[in-house]
Each structure stands twice: as structure tokens, then as C-alpha cells.
Description:
The structure is a single chain. The protein is α+β, with helices and mostly antiparallel strands. Helices cover about 40% and strands about 30% of the residues. The protein has a four-stranded antiparallel beta sheet, with helices on one face.
Amino acid sequence: MSSLKYAWGRRAVVVAAAALAVGLSGCASTTSSTATAPKGDASPEALLKRAQAYWDLVRVNDNVGAWAYEAQSKAPNASLEAYLKKGGITYSSVNVAGVKSIEGDTGLVNVNMKYSLPLLRVRDRELRTEDQWKLIEGVWYHSPPRSGLIPTQ
């Protein structure tokens, strides 16, 4: 019986250590990622550079690094932990083809990607899409529109 308690206790310590490591790396990447974008740069070039950097992180499955580029990371009720639970899509290539438009604080970029959904056994699908970004405090953040399928409350 004591070996069972030891095994559960050890698992709890390992999980806590992993959570701490993810949390600390999230703090480190948030600081460095937002520092690379100059404050107050609403230009198409800044949007293009930031969008490509975001999709490069997503492509290599660096979701902790990508979190710093998400508009929801600026929301007080959002958490890195919840963000890390999303997934299921892997990207083999992603190219931000250009800025389609900027209207006010909203920008659209054209993105070409090749993705897979391993759990559904869908492999190497190509997609050309528009990706939405929001300008928050002079910095562009990834801000996909909310799905009508997901309840707001």
C-alpha cells in the first residue's frame, strides 16, 4: 500500500515540476516575443513580420512561444494552461503570403499552409486562408474570429 502512495506522490511532484517549467518558459517567451515588436508600429511590414514569426512557432509546435502572439494572452481571464490544451493540428509548412488589408486596428494576412489532423488520420491537406490580427497597444496580435459553434458563456 505504501508503494502505491509513493508512486502517486512521485507523479504529483513530476506533474508539478512540469507545470512550473512550462509556466516559467511561458513568462520568458512572453517577454522576449513582445520585445521583438516595436511599440506603435501599425505598418503592414510589422504585421507581416509578426504573423510569420507566430506561424513559425506554431509550425514547430512551440505553443508556449506562440501564446505571446495571441490576443487572448492579453485578456485577464485567459491562461496559458487553457491555451496549451488546444491542438490536434500539425503543420508541415506555413507561409504568410502577404498582408491583405488593414482597417483600423484589424489586419488580415493571407496564409498558405499544409496541415494534418493525426487523430482523424487526415494527412497533408493544403489550405489558403485569411488570418485575422488585432493591433493592441501598438503591437499586432493573432486574433482569429470566434466560432459560432462555441458558446460565449
